[in-house]
Amino acid sequence: MSGHHDHSHHHHDDEGLPSLEEIRRVLADLPGPDLESATAAMQREQTLLKPPGALGRLEELVQWLATWQGKAPPELTHPRIVIFAGAHGVAQRGVSAYPPAVTGQMVQAFINGHAAINQLAELHDADLRVHEMDLDHPTADFTQGPAMSEEVCARAAAYGMMAIEPGLHLLCLGEMGIGNTTSAAALCAALFGGPASDWVGPGTGVDSEGIKRKIAAVEAGLAANPTALTDPFEALRCLGGQELAAIMGAIIACRLARVPVVLDGFACTAAAAVLYKADPKALDHCIVAHRSAEPGHARLLTAINKRPLFEFDMRLGEASGAALTIPVLRSALACHLNMATFAEAGVSAKGEKPAGSVH
Ligand SMILES: O=C(O)c1ccc[n+]([C@@H]2O[C@H](COP(=O)([O-])O)[C@@H](O)[C@H]2O)c1
Ligand SMILES: Cc1cc2nc[nH]c2cc1C
């Protein structure tokens, strides 16, 4: 694995870390799109040797990179993949096909280069980092009350904000956390309403009894956390997990540092949806890589008005879907950077009179 593996320790000295209130204030003043870079990229695109729009969403992707890097042409030599791993109290309720210990074991697998994401990161020359969020201290079981204190949630969000720095060209976000599709389902139900069954699915592959336990856990979580319905950050604190709070923080930090973000599957998108609920423009610098096989993901994408790039029926998590966008983005960029213009190639433009034609 290139890059690091970090342990998030709980320090008592939290001075300097932003509180949820401060995160709320940052959100009120987010930088907008760089329209100058967007225009410059669009103008170049229009001269290139193809019918206008013929590269479809590849053109859209170059525009998006330019807009949110604030640079025309945009670059993609320094992409990073970050996985946040979190332990969920609700995982004790028989809501996953795997035991809670798998979260830490998979972190070890990421470190040893054994996981799917290691192969994709290596193939695409991306800097892969894994941040383990206090796995020895799972969040509280949210069916009994809030998963996290304000302090733990804010610290996790602040930790997520520190996972990037200006100069990165792209951040692919992913998660690892046994039980987190239940947490994400509860979060979605709190943010967007609807019955628990709208948001619950098989996750890692539970059977129909497991689905019933997941629905019951989501319903109990909403009943035990009435304040979750009053505010998106409160929903995250009550029903989320540390990896989800960290993803939220990383998304905000990327906006401030002009780093475009690629979101992965269901849990990752649910964490992002907290920001969407607080301000629908907060995810304008994010794309969603794929529509996960987890059935709630399609509904969630509709709720946050995002169209995924791929529908590959993946449901792995660990940023695997997000990593697949790197070669696609590079393909889009290679065309944008290296194609000739009509003039350079000596090709007639649309509607140009045939040479020697009589009018
Ligand atoms: O990315 C997805 O949409 C996705 C769908 C199902 C499962 N996962 C992964 O599986 C874990 C959560 O599943 P579960 O069944 O334990 O809630 C977590 O580590 C996720 O990364 C991921
Ligand atoms: C094996 C395994 C790998 C994963 N990667 C992300 N979530 C996961 C869940 C399991 C169970």
TrEMBL record:
It is an enzyme of class 2 (transferase). CDD domains: DMB-PRT_CobT. The active site is at E318. It catalyses: 5,6-dimethylbenzimidazole + nicotinate beta-D-ribonucleotide = alpha-ribazole 5'-phosphate + nicotinate + H(+). It holds the Pfam family DBI_PRT. The keyword Glycosyltransferase applies. Belongs to the CobT family. This is Nicotinate-nucleotide--dimethylbenzimidazole phosphoribosyltransferase.
